[in-house]
Amino acid sequence: MPAATANQTIGPYWHLIEHAEWADLTRFGAQGEVITVGGQVLDGDAAPVADAAIEIWQADPPADATFPGFGRTRCDAEGRFRFRTLKPGPVAGRGNAWQAPHLALVLHARGVLKPLFSRLYFAGDRRNESDPLLSAITDPARRETLLARETAPAHWHLDIRLQGEDETVFLAL
Amino acid sequence: MSDPAPFRPPMPGGQPDYDTPSYGSTAKRHPKAALIAVPTTLTEASGPRFSPLHFPALADLSVTSGKPALGERIIVAGRVADEDGRPVANTMVEIWQANAAGRYDHPGDQHDAPLDPNFHGEGRVFTDSEGRYRFVTIKPGSYPWRNHPNAWRPNHIHFSLFGSGFAQRLITQMYFPGDPLLDLDPIYLSIADRAARARLIARFEIALTQPEWALGYRFDIVLRGRGATPMENA
Q1: ipTM of this model?
Q2: Is B171 within 8 Å of A94 when comparing Cβ atoms?
Q3: Shortest CA gap A154–chain B (Å)
């Protein structure tokens, strides 16, 4: 069997497969602690990335008929994105470890030749202290790039910086 | 609960680099810090399951409200498997593309080529139990872009796949055999391994071609495998 098919950029016209409602993971009637998560995507010149697609996946709460666990949204002209979802709980890690509540993030854009993976954690959650991934990032400033802030009740904010000062921690999965 | 089997690392040269100077838009959009390796956990090993109930199939892009789009009708079909050769069943395959004139039905596309009211360019199907998928569409045209002087994209169809684990997420482009623009295209050439990039070129297949109706192109897709460790019997 050949190796995995190569990725190519999503390009600037991916909105042909965009459905705005995918940004709302509660649209099928899921019950739980509803939150919004949003932020701004910036490039190496701190210019907004206006044509990116942002996707989230969460293993908790488990996906079912009312909760897809997955969302996709666009960035607007200022590079801003926003999802409505349920706040995740902790997720099993490897061995006996537990991972702090988090969302998996992936960014696709023109000029990005393969998916850029990251994660969003919730600042102030005491479980962050023992999270294996956060603990593996020794530089506290870099760790901060994965911590969303609650800027309004039930609204969590995280900017994604593709390059430069405060560059977001991206992951090799 | 046992740990999920890790995904295989990418084959050297088999994936593009984020930093690809010949493709200008990567300059300010590639991370400069090293990526942090994450061992496979439930987060990466699980992934969305799309129900055709919520995400209805759009398998024929060549007709809109009963009216045929302009251009050369084609069949694009193939099989989705993982690196271990296992079919990836019931997974969502999304496609999007320019029309026959090389124009996207997208407000951002200002190329001086006509739109086709009967062609939107979005498709979505689910693979069957053996990982097979099939679309009917129109052969997309080439179009200019501003990466370098006289730059033209080869004819291509964009593909998006999920697989069963989030780490298998794939966004790619399918190309057509014999396209002279391929060897001038920095996006295609961003894949260092020649054989790996050639696998993005669909094969014309007479057996897939429907007489008196449409040419058939086969495009098989491989998603990341889960390493050599055999799964334990639960």
Answers
A1: 0.97
A2: no
A3: 23
Residue B234 scores a pLDDT above 80: no
Residue A134 confidence (pLDDT): 98
Cβ of residue A47 closer than 8 Å to a chain B Cβ: yes
Asked if the model's pLDDT at residue B233 lies above 50, the reply is no
pTM confidence score: 0.97
Active site residue B23: no
Decide if B153 is catalytic.
yes
Q: Which residue has the higher pLDDT, B231 or B170?
A: B170
Q: Per-residue DSSP letters for chain B?
A: -PPPPPPPPPPTTSS--S--TTSGGGTTTS--SPPEE----HHHH------TTTS--B-B-SEETTEEPSS-EEEEEEEEEETTS-B-TT-EEEEE---TTS--SSTT---SS---TT---EEEEE--TTSEEEEEEEPPPPEEESSSTTEEEPSEEEEEE--SSGGG-EEEEEE-TT-TTGGG-TTGGGS--HHHHHTTB-EE-TTTPBTTTBEEEE--EEE----SSPPPP-
State pLDDT tens for residues B64-92. Answer: 999 999 999 999 999 999 999 999 999 99
The confidence score (pLDDT) of residue B230 equals 44
Quick one: what percent of chain A has pLDDT higher than 90? 98
Fold of B55-223: Protocatechuate 3,4-Dioxygenase, subunit A (2.60.130)
Could you give the domains of chain A?
14-161 (2.60.130.10)
* Contact (CB<8Å) A136/B84: no
